[in-house]
């Protein structure tokens, strides 16, 4: 679970995101969906500090990320999920099994994909 973004509680950080260039939103839910992609945008080279906690741990972890240039692809409605010839998008190498347990977690509002990505990141970092 993502807890903070650059020192702000995550809900507060999302509340302060501007969607000025995101067009109009018919519902509050639609506006919230638009805010997430803008939260992660920053000038190239900017250091971002975030903290998170995995469901199987009571410890809060922190990590520092550096903003990279995606040439605006992440804001495109046609943003490629999979890399196309190495250009844009991401090529997932971790598959999330749709088990009964994961289905219940998703139904309870847990971000199962983020949790699995964090676990995979820890595994890679510990094996280096």
Concise description?
With 128 residues, the protein is an alpha+beta fold. It has helices at residues 10-15, 28-39, 100-107, 112-126; strands at 2-5, 8-9, 47-52, 61-66.
SSE layout and pairing:
Layout: E1 2-5, E2 8-9, H1 10-15, H2 28-39, E3 47-52, E4 61-66, H3 100-107, H4 112-126
Antiparallel strand pairs: 1-2, 1-3, 3-4
Question: What does this molecule look like?
Answer:
- The structure is a single chain.
- This protein is of the alpha+beta class and 128 residues long.
- The protein has helices spanning 10-15, 28-39, 100-107, 112-126; strands at residues 2-5, 8-9, 47-52, 61-66.
- A hairpin with an 8-residue loop joins strand 3 and strand 4 (61-66).
- The longest helix has 15 residues, at 112-126.
- The model has no long low-confidence stretch (mean pLDDT 77).
The strand order across the widest sheet is 2-1-3-4
Low-confidence stretches: none
Main sheet overview = 4 strands, antiparallel
Gap from first CA to last CA: 24 Å
Class based on secondary structure composition and strand pairing: alpha+beta
Mean pLDDT across the residues is: 77
Instruction: Work out the helicity level.
Output: 25-40%
Question: Order of SSEs, N→C?
Answer: EEHHEEHH
Shape: globular
- Name the beta content range: 5-15%
Overall tally of domains: 2
Number of helices: 4
Number of strands: 4
> Rounded to an integer, what's the Rg over CA atoms?
16 Å
